[in-house]
Amino acid sequence: MIPDNITEIMIHNAMEVQNDLGKDHEPVVKLHSKYGKAIWLLSELDSTNNIAYGVCDLGQGNVELSYVSLNHLESIKHARLKVPMVEIDPSFEGKYPMSVYYEAAKANKRVTEDDALLKAAADRLSKK
Hints:
With 128 residues, this protein is α+β, with helices and mostly antiparallel strands. It has four helices and five strands, in the order αββββαβαα. The protein has one domain (4-95). Helix content is 34%, strand content 23%. It has a five-stranded antiparallel sheet. Strand 3 and strand 4 (64-69) form a beta hairpin. The termini are far apart.
């Protein structure tokens, strides 16, 4: 589902975090449900278990920073059409650290790519 070049970046990001470098990475991939409201902005990957980390929004107004199994996401199929339900957004480009996307999502109760909302979230975080 996720191209190898992006997977490599996610694995590198995870290693930096494991080595206590404390980086707040930008999300490097956006996954979303074709037929629903779920969105995942992901920045890190444990390649051993195929578990990714990032902002998880299941479309119910309760956004969280969490882990998600890529194997599980890949296994979700449409009940009638039997096609994959989760796909990558090839046009996504992370422009802010994960904390900014999370802050904006909490305020908006939804993952957003709206630049004004993301800038406002970055400003709120800089004042903390």
